Known about the structure:
Elements (H helix, E strand, L loop, with lengths): L3 E6 L2 E6 L10 H16 L5 E6 L18 H20 L4 E5 L2 E3 L1 H7 L3 E5 L3 E3 L13 H9 L1 H10 L3 E2 H6 L5 E3 L1 H16 L3 H11 L7 H15 L3 H11 L10
Parallel strand pairs: 2-3, 3-4, 4-6, 5-7, 6-9
Antiparallel strand pairs: 1-2, 7-8
Helix pairs in contact: 1-2, 4-5, 8-9
Amino acid sequence: MSDLLVEKKDAVLMLTLNRPESLNAFSEEMILGLTNAFKLAQRDEEIRVVILSGAGRSFSAGGDVKSMGTASGEEVFEHLGHLNECILTMKQLEKPIIAAVHGFAAGAAFNLALACDLIIAEENSQFVMSFAKVGLISDGGGLYFLPRIVGPYRAKELLFSAEPITAAKAYEYGLVNRVVSLENLKDEVVSFASAVAKGPIKAIGAMKKIIDHTASSTLEEVLEQERMMQSLMVSTKDHQEGVAAFKEKRLPAFQGK
Length: 257
């Protein structure tokens, strides 16, 4: 079976990490498959939202510990090049990505979830920056994403201690959007994704792009980006439909155009 399951359901692309026997530890096939799937989502106008989840008992254990200690520096450099391309493709995708996390999101898998736009976590799930336990630094963008969400001091605590935190604590820290029961996780994520998919995806994609650059932008730059993007949004069919629906007192039927 493929290390990554790809399924398109209406306007939602569902990506499932599929190495349950190893808690969905990353493989080259999985990472390259993810990158290609996110590129597909960008090209396919029918796809409006992406859901990322894991098969079996956990979201993902991150890097494959069984292969650690044997890989050369050159091999790690190449592998991280593929992971970096995947992370950058996710951030460049002008459509929202929702992570559905259960079990563990450990190491690079925690960072893969942070690269998504929203995280919905199962109430018994745990998140851990496990790199220090094996004498490594965080990769996959963790040293970028984590301090921007929780601040540098708390980020250092999570990274230096390498201790897991609960879904409730992750919610308290602002790392996840919602915490739900395991039996409701899939329905909650699919329902939320379907609702977002009915929205004005061009406008949502534009907001994602601007928000993701605010950490390195000045207020003046963001104001100008908003100004330029809004001047484009007013000519979209979704804006025209939104205004018409408001005036006619009905729900809008956005087309993503």
